Amino acid sequence: MAVRRVVPNVQSEAAEESREFYGLLGFEEVMNLGWIMTLAAPSGPTAQISFMAADKTAPVTSDMSVEVDDVDAAYAAVRESGAEIVHPLQNEEWGVRRFFVRDPNGRVINVLGHR
């Protein structure tokens, strides 16, 4: 299993203001689903940051997203380790397969793969 990207998820009610501020640093909007907006650096498109008010389908907002090349293998490894699954593995309507897990620091990690 390989990590493709890691994205901090900032819980925020100021998405528009954040887009403007981070635009000053060279970030551009690459995704906006209304409840989550992701900005990326054009010179390095895996350098990203997301802003969301609340998650559309999960009971909590994740602190970080980790995209992997095999989300099913990641899910199996995490379950086998005994880590707390916060949101079960599922396919989302916006084209990702994901689950949430709590890390040893208490942070909620959104582990995903694109379908």
UniProtKB/TrEMBL annotation:
Gene3D superfamilies: 2,3-Dihydroxybiphenyl 1,2-Dioxygenase, domain 1 (3.10.180.10). It comes from the Bacteria. PROSITE patterns: VOC (PS51819). It holds the Pfam family Glyoxalase. Residues 2-114 form the VOC domain. This is Glyoxalase. It comes from Streptomyces cacaoi. The lineage of its organism: Bacteria, Bacillati, Actinomycetota, Actinomycetes, Kitasatosporales.
